[in-house]
């Protein structure tokens, strides 16, 4: 081997661990939109699976206990990349970049317990708990060109197709007049783009990549039910089906690795997502809040009305790691991470203020071309106060944690 680094064993071990490294972050971030599969040498393909289980409990402003609201979730990622020649490469990536899964239960202010006096004879909710589920899917096509005498520089880009859908139910007295509100946001597919550049120096296992993903604007249908909207105080229909615009955010990822010695690799990842620009604003919910803003009962509601979901701050995420090749076939890796969160107080549909994390991963070459990888990560969530769209704090979540597990099968041929 000499002084060269065995990237096929070592660097891929780090990429393998990333299946469990970028999950349950700020806002709706899930996958971290990793593109390291495209940056691998030669022909490369991978299938990875990620499972996350979190424990998020707290208390409402009435002092009631809130049992675990975080629903476990899982998702797959796929990636394939091939070199056309020594200059051009192509790849296709699939992931589920954004999402949410929360469900309130028990006896607290986020579960409806009829009768709710605020309805004054209107149709009450049916005893359900507050629930949110958001799911997205993305397919990214990439073409890259290596430049320079030694092909050390690469530029890449391509189109992104993204699908999004969501369901939200607000229940309980925490939401005041919005108790009983429900919306189903139909699936919609729309398009954006990706662009980036990378530099590599194989003799020291150095690779740096900067990747930008555009925002993607979706226009789809939102079917809303808002029981209190038909009250004399507001005077609107309780049902509406109409267009809603949702723009998933742009992002910037920086991926870096370099060799420390022939068997040890250092890595770093930085991610930025401007969640402060993101909002979900169904028309009936927004219009009802505009009407309330003109009434004494709507003190504090801005004239433009309320968003159903929004965030105050942008997300920053940092991960630092080391990988060590133990044998020609086996490598292990570990990393620590920090996520800033997207503000505090934050929406009661996702009451976490970022996290700290630590994890381990391993990759084993079954044959010269095929490998299996696995990783696990423990997450310490930041304490957060939950707020409703009017910015009223209605809950407090402390001392919560979670874990992520991931597995991958990969193929590489140079």
Can you walk me through this structure?
The structure is a single chain. With 414 residues, the chain is mainly beta. 5% of the residues lie in helices and 52% in strands. It has helices at 7-17, 283-293, and strands at 43-55, 58-60, 65-66, 73-83, 88-95, 99-103, 131-147, 153-169, 182-201, 206-213, 216-225, 239-248, 251-261, 264-273, 279-280, 309-310, 315-325, 330-339, 346-347, 355-365, 370-381, 384-387, 393-397, 401-413. Strands 1-4-5-7-8-9-10-13-14-17-18-20-21-24 form a 14-stranded antiparallel barrel. A hairpin with a 4-residue loop joins β17 and β18 (330-339). The relative contact order is 0.19. Mean pLDDT is 89; it is low at 1-5 and 7-23.
Could you name the ranges where pLDDT drops below 50 across 5 or more consecutive residues? 1-5, 7-23
Oligomer category: single chain
Along the chain, the helix and strand elements come as HEEEEEEEEEEEEEEEHEEEEEEEEE
Strand order of the largest sheet: 1-4-5-7-8-9-10-13-14-17-18-20-21-24
Q: Report the helical percentage.
A: under 10%
Helix-strand blueprint:
Layout: H1 7-17, E1 43-55, E2 58-60, E3 65-66, E4 73-83, E5 88-95, E6 99-103, E7 131-147, E8 153-169, E9 182-201, E10 206-213, E11 216-225, E12 239-248, E13 251-261, E14 264-273, E15 279-280, H2 283-293, E16 309-310, E17 315-325, E18 330-339, E19 346-347, E20 355-365, E21 370-381, E22 384-387, E23 393-397, E24 401-413
Parallel strand pairs: 19-22
Antiparallel strand pairs: 1-4, 1-24, 2-3, 2-23, 4-5, 5-7, 6-7, 7-8, 8-9, 9-10, 9-11, 10-13, 11-12, 13-14, 14-17, 15-16, 17-18, 18-20, 20-21, 21-24, 22-23
